[in-house]
Give the backbone structure.
Amino acid sequence: MRNPQLDKNGGLQHLLTLDGLPREILVEILDNAAPFTEVAEREVKKLPLLRGKSIFNLFFENSTRTRTTFEIAAKRLSADVVNLNVSTSSTAKGESLLDTIDNLCAMQADMFVVRHAASGAPFLIARHLYEQGRDDIHVINAGDGRHAHPTQGLLDMYTIRHYKGDFTKLSVAIVGDVLHSRVARSQICALVTLGVPEIRVIGPKTLLPTEIEKMGVRVFHDMREGLRDVDVIMMLRLQNERMNGALLPTPQEFYKVWGLTGEKLEYARPDAIVMHPGPMNRGVEIDSAVADGAQAVILPQVTFGIAVRMAVMSMLAS
């Protein structure tokens, strides 16, 4: 079957998920992000790579950080950016998602950045464009339901490579609400593809998917044992908006058992890095002293996110 993310020559046509994305393309994205990071550090405000291109940010789910970084990335590439106001958009008035897409295509859209509460919405748009013969329009998944968040997974991989280098010698722990986290799924897919030999998921049974071991990870229900000698700790936000029923005790109890404190961090390697996709719930998932400490690389993740999204957009546009 045709990979919906690739064009007929095997190049990147859309970025929908990291699951099944060839390793060489994943590495190419990371490689291409490096010079964009250097550009940001040199405070070069704009490059002409997407001049004349129209990028539509279609955020059907609330987001500030992700939408802002996509907008900054597109503008630094000199693209024209249109942010769709979902609360007053045609879909809120009853128009179907695909009718909205058709109307935006008629406005000469070149790229859609899509965030949607329904898993699979970006795939639906990509398939619709394929059926319409519109291989000149590209789709980037900015998060769909519980399914995937590929650019977040990519910027996490870029952060790990920046600080740790060789993926094939690392032990990585993903901690918290894996069950509801599209970020965790993208992280695991990328880590497996890049050859990380040990991937651990740590959390209460109620917040871990059944049979998650089949994804190539080891499961731990003890925080200290799971963190022992790891090189990278990837904390997750509690996805309270996606939870049905009482899956947890109080936030205070969660913090006591599963929150990352300085004492628990000592079980990891002395040079371990601490990551978080944000927004953080301080005092629930992570202690402020850890979040602001020397081992945390949470703010660099945000900066790298702009570079990675610039890389993805430039690859699609080329």
